[in-house]
Amino acid sequence: MCGIVGALTGRPAAPLMLDALRRLEYRGYDSAGLATIQDGKLHRRRAAGKLSELDAVVAADPLPGTSGVGHTRWATHGPPTVENAHPHIAGRVAVVHNGIIENYAELKAGLKADGVTFTSDTDTEVVAHLLDRAIRAGQTPQAAMAALMPRLTGAFAFVVLVAGEDDLLLAARRVSPLAIGLGDGEAFVGSDAVALAPLTRRIVYLEDGDWAVLRRSGVEVFRDAGVPVERREQISTVSAAMVGKGNYRHFMEKEIHEQPEAIAHTLNAVLDPGTGRATVPYPLDAPDIPKITIVAAGTSYYAGLAARYWFESLAGIATEVELASEFRDRDVVLPERGVTIAVTQSGESLDTLMAVRQAKALGQRILAIVNVPESTIARESDGVLLTRAGPEFGVASTKATAAQLTAFCALAIALGRANGRLSEERAIELRDALAGLPSRVGEALHHEARYVRIAHDLARARDVLYLGRGLSYPIALEGALKLKEITYVHAEGYAAGEMKHGPIALIDENVPVVIVAPTDRWFEKTASNVSEVRARGGRVILLTDAAGAERLGESDDHVVVLPTVDPVVAPILYLVPVQLLAYYAAVEKGTDADQPRNLAKSVTVE
Ligand code: G6P
Description:
Shape: globular
Helix content: 25-40%
Largest sheet: 8 strands, antiparallel
Low-confidence stretches: none
Strand order of the largest sheet: 3-2-4-1-10-9-11-15
Radius of gyration: 25 Å
Distance between the termini: 10 Å
CATH architecture of the largest domain: 4-Layer Sandwich
CATH superfamily of the largest domain: Aminohydrolase, N-terminal nucleophile (Ntn) domain
Structural class: alpha/beta
Mean pLDDT: 93
Strand content: 15-25%
Bound molecules: 6-O-phosphono-alpha-D-glucopyranose
CATH topology of the largest domain: Glutamine Phosphoribosylpyrophosphate, subunit 1, domain 1
């Protein structure tokens, strides 16, 4: 994780780097720092804590210079102190770094044996020392970089600023993403194109293993020990207007409210405007796929769990869903001609990327369902289905999940039609149900007073249970994850049928139980679970539709009545209440919904 930025410009570099770091704070916010060059010398400011702390330091003691590097940290090696904050400086070299230099201990031992003193606990500092020593020994910075790259192992990206070199940045990418931005007589580098959006939309994406020399006049890209390579300039689809909070308090709130558009745009992209049908993308278009394996992390994994129901029931295809971090470290057995689907908002989660590489090595063809078209996973997959949620900044994923579920559901319908499992009549009904979702989701957003009242209770609870059956089970898991990640209230998502095998022991009047229960084929069984909770004095919070409320609702205060939809698409609608309950509980508690402690959005460590 960590966000990195670099700038060679004609303007003061510090304010524009701080602004770019604000758009990278989703990658980590344990500490932040900047370094610039003025009169050939390095200047540095660092602060522990969020970027606002660094803002204050820089406001009190401004940084001169028109070239520099900046960093926002998610701590891996060493606690989030000022000493461990980036940039790390050794002699003439300042480095900002994301990811892990895996062989740093060995490199550090060698440097220490040579009398080098370290000032931080980080793995980053070895890069600064190794480059500084090579430059002091007479090598050019570029030659020093060429010699260094083959010596490093791990998954990382870093950017280097060298004292005395006001028109030079060195940037390297091994797995972790890095985008170079070209301006008019200016050059920039950042962990993603979104960070650079207000500065330029002309982007050169570095490939895995590339390193680059940036000057104001342009960029040269190399591999290994200095073999030049060509990388195409692209125009980023992200505009500056897409990266603000608008009138919302938090990105998360804004992104929850953007879900009708996220669903509609994803549907428009997936469905053919002429026929209204989805085309099945490569490699899922092959006949007789023996098995689909979905790999993902976090919330994207839960979207995969819902997809399993759809692939099995609408298309009759055997489907397994795997946590990427587990899949990649097992001796998995996959059938010939199998397809692996990687589902990921960022396209950069390292666990998911490694799972993709493992599946590829095992002969699987890969489809990525991804929200960032230029991401590593999108580029390494055989086929890509883009979700069109737009840039997502809240650390807890919301609108990207709605878009993933929409894409999965449309895909399952298309597969069911392609293999004859689903009748055209039913397919039309389901496509209509999907098309109606943006409006239904819009309606579900409008129960604010009810959500706030229930969230008040959740914010005060010590433990909360979320239960759901069938297609509602992944939503129960998602609800619990959302609540714990942004409010720090302990929450567990459980399959409603499993309640009797354990969680029922937890139930008393102090444990709110959120039950996700649209009227579907599982409803009657879930209704029994509601009675079982109530019989034990438990406080039921019921998310259901009008028919469900009539059958089960006791206290109006604790029932959210959602629009009635076809049960197959219900999980996409029921995301909204679980997201908003968590969001308002965070507002009530005063926790930072956009930047919850210890988390980061794009997790590029294992
Ligand atoms: C992190 C984020 C989650 C996200 C997960 C997977 O844990 O905090 O919100 O669901 O990564 O991210 P991906 O980009 O692969 O969907």
